Amino acid sequence: MANMMDYLDWRGDLLFSQAPFNDVDNLLLSELAYVDFTGIVPGMDARGEAIFLKDASRIFWEGHTDEEFEDRLSMTKPAVFVMRRMARTRRFENICLSAYVKDIDAQEQSQFSAVCASLDDGSLFVSYSGTDGTMVGWRENFNMAYLEHTPGQEKAVRYLEKAVRGTQKNVRVGGHSKGGNLAIYASVHCGEDVRGKIAQIYSNDGPGFGETTLQAPSYQKLLPLIRRIMPQQAIVGLLLEQGADYRVVRSTAGGARQHDMRTWEVLGGELVFEEEVSDRSQVLDETLKSWISAMELPQRKRFIDTLFTMLERAKVKDVEDFYHLKWKTVAEILRSQRELTDEDRDVLSNTFKLLLGAGNETIKKTRQEKKR
Q1: Which stretches within 101-251 are classed as H helix?
Q2: Dihedral Cα 16, 18, 22, 25, nearest 10 deg
Q3: Among 349, 324, 316, 180, CA closest to 261
Q4: What is the model's pTM?
Q5: Could you tell me the end-to-end alpha-carbon distance of the chain, in angstroms, rounded to an integer?
Q6: With the CA atoms of 206, 212, 214 and 215 taken in that order, what torsion angle do they form, in degrees rounded to the nearest 10?
Q7: Each residue of 270-299: pLDDT tens digit?
Q8: What confidence tens digit (pLDDT) does each residue in 322-369 have?
Q9: Which residues have a Cβ under 8 Å from the Cβ of 65 and sit 6 or more positions away?
Q10: What is the largest CA-CA distance in the chain?
Q11: Which of 87, 152, 168, 187 has the least C-beta neighbours within 10 A?
Q12: What is the model's pLDDT at position 270?
């Protein structure tokens, strides 16, 4: 089946003023935030400065080769190839990129990146990056299980307010994975003058929130503008609570690979939707929510701190390191467990027992429901 790349072949010759913005355009623009535009796209402080996508792509590829990215395992690697294809179409070549920010701070456990795209229909798309391949980025995702506000979320609010304040354009805000979470969070917590300019918010398989955000009056007010999209075998998009409806897109892949937006099926100018996520995803959703709710916030924090301390001691710095684990590294991870305090070992052990128990209960409950 066709995907977003085929869409560029089918609709790439039509300007936004000729064919209105749609869900697939959202996927493509959300991919752009994964590209490292450092030194190419003007930053937030360069007010009013921008660069055409076709020029940004040309400069990027003058300094890189395909081989640099083809062997990488990260799900973010296709973004550079998607960007190049977009830059070769009439629809996207002259969109103007601006306000690029890339900020990774290991000390505050924050990985943040965003870029703005001005379209020929007079609108602005604010695109937030999801998690990159760094352990810092993944740690921030886990931190959402016990923090009401992460440093990345707070940066997303400040970014949106700076990027949008003063513009008269209709604004769309979106992102993939953690980027979808940031898109909603920033829209909910920004100033009312900025919020009033937002026409649509896209969360593409993005995780949810804590109660503080869900209960905010601004969240309830924005619900009609939030468009959540997730694949059939969703994992990330079902994490934590959302309170907003979602659409399920058909994917050509299986399991965790469905998180990659390039596997989402497209027909003409539209995504191909299904009725509901898979049974497996529903079981996983119930299991994870039951597991997390069974832990007090201090236990969640202790577990995450302990888990990432072990990875750090084994010198696992990014996803590449994790995927290429050698027996020596695995042994170091196991050995580092012996270096933990008795209390940390107990937290680790008890937390995994809770996960097992939650999984067994969910499976038992599912079987009983099927019998009925």
Answers
A1: 135-143, 151-164, 178-189, 192-195, 211-214, 217-222
A2: -40
A3: 180
A4: 0.80
A5: 37
A6: -170
A7: 999 988 776 666 666 566 656 556 667 676
A8: 545 554 454 555 555 555 566 665 655 655 555 555 445 544 554 554
A9: none
A10: 65
A11: 168
A12: 92
CA proximity to 89, closest of 30, 149, 12, 21: 12
Which is nearest to 126 in space by CA: 67, 170, 90, 72?
170
The better pLDDT of the pair 95, 299 is held by 95
Q: What is the mean pLDDT of the chain?
A: 80
Give the side-chain half-sphere CA count within 13 A for 180.
27
pLDDT at 234 over 70: yes
CB atoms near residue 73 (< 10 Å): 12
Q: Rounded distance, CA 228 to CA 207, Å?
A: 10
Tokens of 83: 């960007």
- Pick the closest to residue 127 from 83, 166, 85, 91 (CA basis): 83
252: how many CB neighbours lie within 10 A of its CB?
A: 15
Judge whether 215 and 234 are in contact, CB under 8 Å: no
Work out whether strand 171-176 and strand 110-118 pair parallel, antiparallel, or are unpaired: unpaired
